Amino acid sequence: MTSEVRRPLLHIPDDQAGRGLRVDLMTDGQVRVRVLPAGPDLWAETLEEAAALAGMLPGVSPAVLEQLGWELELMAMRGGDG
């Protein structure tokens, strides 16, 4: 993918230093989920799809996945004006 980051959406740190998850909206409309510190990346069409697929990424703890779900629910409740 050659798209650039339009807007960083979430940075969820893990209990292990330097690890976690980052969610970005890209200029082409895709959603990128990156396992920190160095990948891999998951590409999705929507935030909902990204959340559903994030559990398949290696190195993502259950606590980070739970936080991702919580953050996305909060974003949905706040809507586009949040």
Describe the structure.
The structure is a single chain. The chain has a 4-stranded antiparallel sheet with strand order 1-2-3-4, with helices on one face. It has helices at 47-54, 62-78; strands at 5-13, 20-26, 31-36, 41-44. The chain has 82 residues and is α+β, with helices and mostly antiparallel strands. The longest helix has 17 residues, at 62-78. It is globular, with a radius of gyration of 12 Å. It is built from 2 helices and 4 strands, in the order ββββαα. Strand 2 and strand 3 form a beta hairpin. The termini are far apart.
Distance from N terminus to C terminus (CA atoms, Å) equals: 29 Å
- Tally of helical runs: 2
DSSP summary, beta strand count: 4
- SS class: alpha+beta
- The H/E string reads EEEEHH
Radius of gyration: 12 Å
Label this structure with key terms.
82 residues, globular, alpha+beta, single chain, 32% strand, 2 helices, four-stranded antiparallel sheet
Briefly summarize what is shown.
The protein is an alpha+beta fold. The chain has helices spanning 47-54, 62-78, and strands at residues 5-13, 20-26, 31-36, 41-44.
Explain the layout of strands and helices.
Elements: E1 5-13, E2 20-26, E3 31-36, E4 41-44, H1 47-54, H2 62-78
Antiparallel strand pairs: 1-2, 2-3, 3-4
Helix pairs in contact: 1-2
